[in-house]
Amino acid sequence: MKATQALTTALKAELRRAGITYAQLAVHLDLAESSVKRIFSRGELTLARIDQVLALLQLDFVDLAREVAQATPARQALSAEQEAAVVADPHLLLVAICVQAHWTAAQILETYAITHAQLVAALTVLDRLGFIELRAHNRYRLKVDQTFRWRPDGPVMAFFRQHAVPDYFEGGFDGPGEQLALVHGQIAHARAADFHDRLQRLAQDFVHQHVADQVRPAGDKTAYTLVLGMRSWLFEPFRTLLRMPGAAPGIAPRAQARR
Hints:
CATH class of the largest domain: Mainly Alpha
Distance between the termini: 40 Å
CATH topology of the largest domain: Arc Repressor Mutant, subunit A
Order of helices and strands: HHHHHHHHHEEHEHEHE
CATH architecture of the largest domain: Orthogonal Bundle
Number of helices: 12
């Protein structure tokens, strides 16, 4: 990637993280929004323009250069030891989930009853764990990618299975935008892999939409949690009725729920 293209890509990412639209940037640069879009699409940012954008972002060129230099593949998981450290502290787990959802420090403090000192401490630990790169003014760069997932049998998922799953499925799933579907069936092994990929894409689409809607007013958004699951599984009371115990048919239910 050319240097100018890399700088442009990094700036666009910083603008998204800060929730700054092209329209808002156009006002700051005293340009038409169409001109701003053209400058970014063509990668025609001059050093003077870059300085103006960085001033709006409250960043300096060193921060931007570091962003480009560290443009390495993001992490897709933490170690079991790192997850154990996250789940051991309720504040740390809360902040980890919030930053994974691209919340700003201000949003976290406005929404949850934690102190500024507790937030800074949590962000510092997440920086040390390699989950984020902490910057000035409690800004951060997420160092896990959009396919990041907690370990299926790790400490975080164990915590959620014990504490969150009962609370989640207690809902009626009959509110606006809510749905619960449980589908059982027997399908070929190759088709199971296809459905796995589709579910992964659906999860990524949900994340992309969340990021895109960060610029919308709070009143235009509702918090949803999307749960996707697919297992080769048979309900335990049914397993006891099998004529040949241990020879359960390959039933792969799919559970999808939004809340």
